[in-house]
Amino acid sequence: MNTTNPFDEIEQFLGRTPLGGERARGRDLRTADIDVAEYADEFVVMADLPGFDRDEIDVRVRDDRLAIAAERDAEREDADRRYIRRERRHESVTRTVGLPTNARLDDATATYRHGVLTVTVPIDVLDADEGRRIDVN
Questions:
Q1: Cross-strand pairs, 92
Q2: What share of the chain is helix, strand, coil (3-state, %, to 5)?
Q3: Cross-referenced InterPro entries, in alphabetical order (predicted)?
Q4: In sequence order, what are the residues at sequence separation of 6 or more whose Cβ sits closer than 8 angstroms to the Cβ of residue 46?
Q5: Would you give per-residue pLDDT tens digits along the chain (137 residues)?
């Protein structure tokens, strides 16, 4: 019997989960909902990460891609509690977004307020008529 989930395969195709799917190894891996906007002078990614603390969020740039990851563990076991149902456990979310080629990665900033992470990456403004100049050595 095939135990793969076709929706996991779609998520992999869209680049929202790593190949092989972390779900297969027992971790709860899901994607963060995002909005992406490109303005004249900046590229902005807003990701919903409710319930995470700032120190649980990791934002990195690799190979012209912005990677957002957040990971947390639920509260510790309490021997005095008798759970009828327990669903709050380890949680991990991830999302990767391609960045424009004219992004100024060293000037990127990130803020986290009310469960929303906002990453702003300035972009070099290119004159559409002139294009981008390439120096010849």
A1: 29, 71
A2: 15, 35, 50
A3: A-crystallin/Hsp20_dom (IPR002068), HSP20-like_chaperone (IPR008978), Small_HSP (IPR031107)
A4: 34, 35, 36, 37, 116, 117, 118, 119
A5: 556 667 666 766 665 554 444 443 333 446 788 999 999 899 999 999 998 999 999 999 988 899 999 998 866 666 677 777 766 667 889 999 999 989 999 999 999 999 999 999 999 876 666 667 778 87
Q: Which amino acid is at 43?
A: F
Task: Please state, in angstroms and rounded to a whole number, the distance separating the CA atoms of residues 135 and 54.
Answer: 42
Domains of the chain, by residue range, sit at 26-75+89-122
Rounded to 10 degrees, the C-alpha dihedral 29/32/33/35 comes to -150
Q: Which long-range contacts (CB under 8 A, 24 or more apart) does 19-27 make?
A: 22/92, 27/90, 27/92
Beta strands at 91-98 and 109-113: parallel, antiparallel or unpaired: unpaired
State which H helix or E strand residue 34 sits in: strand 34-38
pTM: predicted TM-score of the whole model, two decimal places: 0.65
